[in-house]
Specification:
Elements lengths: L39 H12 L2 E6 L2 E6 L2 H10 L1 H4 L7 H6 L12 H14 L2 H6 L1 H21 L3 E2 H17 L7 H11 L17 H18 L9 H16 L1 H14 L15 H13 L5 E5 L4 E3 L2 E3 L4 E5 H4 L21 H4 L27 H18 E5 L31 E6 L3 H7 L1
Parallel strand pairs: 2-7
Antiparallel strand pairs: 1-2, 3-9, 4-7, 5-6, 8-9
Helix pairs in contact: 7-8, 7-17, 8-11, 9-10, 11-13, 11-16, 13-16
Membrane topology: Single-pass membrane protein
Keywords: Heme, Iron, Membrane, Metal-binding, Monooxygenase, Oxidoreductase, Transmembrane, Transmembrane helix
InterPro entries: Cyt_P450, Cyt_P450_CS, Cyt_P450_E_grp-I, Cyt_P450_sf
């Protein structure tokens, strides 16, 4: 039986350099997979405390390098990105479900440049985004109307599901002109894209279809093949819904932040008309809440790249073909870089330097390596502006119109200090909350009445 040895540098210039430190022993076939939990970002934090901010693992026969500091992020994603780290790593699920032709995963080169230009110039340019603003406003009003109806009837609503309907309907109508029929596939895609098959890392299994993982891929292909071929929607649906779900949970658990946000909305917009997307530029605290949510709950807690050319990083040789993992979740909660990192504190991102300090100047565009919720460099998410604007608009609208009372184990809404949302995570590409946010809405403004009569 063949076991891939620890790689050594191919070029003479790098041959004297060591590989990043690695746990011992490395087991046959599985490598270091036995060290990983389903929530991989937590496993990587535990290992980095022992082996340092850069270390190596073997996922089966796949050499893997883990980076857990902003200094290393900059070396990988800025200094060496153009030559060595310009391509994303694909799991077998992504390859099969997108016919190895995913917009998000296409290797760096002329075709990628063409696709990127098409997306930025034709789909996400300012004119197109502005033209579709009424559509986005209409989809937000649908969510608000559902909650208003439940508030009037004093009945629970699954807010998590409503958020997924909202993002799915908005993106798919913008891109495809269809909505409800692909909501289920959006969730299934993002769930399986965040999982791994043994065949991803153990090379003798690559030609085999192993276990339920491969059967689930076949089922998705069989049921939704026409939709999966148009894969652009999968990048924008679940991630925005999950981030908004986390934001609402944080607001429920932090009534001080909620009260301050509501005061801002009432001062700027009032109670008689609904929030519009154009109002967001005048709501700095709402924008700060969005940033703080992406800091504590990044859509991609672990960003992945593939090393396409051997190079040196921080005194170590990084082998060609290696999977590179950037533990964004760890850095964004590290007390070295953030004051009170486990506290939900939007004030840190206010543009007023006196209140926010240095963090007030940090944006989400991948230029500040302590905050990379959308990645960085050539392969960062191109829809960051659209995602943050839509999320801010919906959050401001919900804050203006409703309080959310979490439904407890007995089926009754929790009140006062007992009204808290679970912050437990579950595995997935976007790491959503483990339990859906089921709440009884309580109307807070006169605009809610207009929703019911419209």
């Amino acid at each position: 039986m063949y076991f891939r040895p620890t790689p050594t540098a191919k070029s003479k210039a790098l041959r004297h350099l060591p590989n990043p430190p690695s746990p011992k022993p490395r087991l046959p076939l599985v490598g270091h997979l036995h060290l990983l939990d389903p929530l991989i970002h937590h496993s990587l934090i535990r290992l980095s405390k022992r082996y340092g901010p850069i270390f190596s693992l073997y996922f089966g026969s796949m050499p893997t390098v883990v980076a857990s500091s902003p200094e290393l992020f900059k070396l990988f994603l800025q200094t060496h990105e153009a030559t060595s780290f310009n391509t994303r790593f694909q799991t077998s699920a992504i390859r099969r479900l997108t016919y190895d032709n995913s917009v998000a995963m296409v290797p760096f080169g002329p075709y990628w440049k063409f696709i990127r230009k098409l997306i930025m110039n034709d789909l996400l340019n300012a004119t197109t985004v502005a033209k579709l603003r009424p559509l986005r406003s209409q989809e937000i009003k649908k969510v608000l109307k559902v909650l208003a109806q439940n508030a009037e009837a004093q009945t629970p609503v699954d807010v998590t599901e409503e958020l997924l309907k909202w993002t799915n309907s908005t993106i798919s109508k913008m891109m495809l002109g269809e909505a409800e029929e692909i909501r289920h596939i959006a969730r299934e895609l993002l769930k399986i894209f965040g999982e791994y098959s043994l065949s991803d890392f153990i090379w003798p299994l690559k030609k085999l279809k192993v276990g339920q993982y491969e059967k689930r891929i076949d089922n998705i292909l069989g049921m939704y093949d026409p939709v999966v071929e148009r894969d652009f929607f999968s990048a924008g649906t679940d991630s925005t819904a999950v981030a908004t779900d986390w934001a609402l949970a944080e607001l429920i658990n932090n009534p001080r932040v909620l009260a301050k946000a509501r005061e801002e909305v009432y001062n700027v917009v009032g109670k008689d008309r609904l929030v519009e997307e154009t109002d967001i530029q005048n709501l700095p605290y709402i924008r700060a809440i969005v940033k703080e949510t992406f800091r504590m709950h990044p859509p991609l807690p672990v960003v992945k790249r593939k090393c396409v050319a051997e190079c040196e990083v921080d005194g170590y040789v990084i082998p060609e073909g290696a999977l590179i993992l950037f533990n964004v979740w760890a850095v964004q909660r590290d007390p070295k870089y953030w004051e009170s990192p486990l506290e939900f504190k939007p004030e840190r991102f206010l543009e007023n330097p006196a209140e926010a300090g240095e963090a007030g100047a940090i944006d989400l565009r991948g230029q500040h390596f302590t905050l990379l919720p959308f990645g960085s460099g050539r392969r960062m998410c191109p829809g960051v502006n659209l995602a943050t604007a839509g999320m801010a608009s919906l959050l401001a609208s919900l804050i203006q119109n409703f309080d959310l009372q979490v439904v407890g184990p007995t089926g009754k809404p929790l009140k006062g200090k007992d009204n808290r949302a679970s912050m437990e995570e579950r595995p997935g590409l976007t790491v959503p909350r483990a339990h859906n946010l089921v709440c009884v809405p309580v109307a807070k403004s006169t605009a809610t009445t207009k929703l019911l009569s419209s």
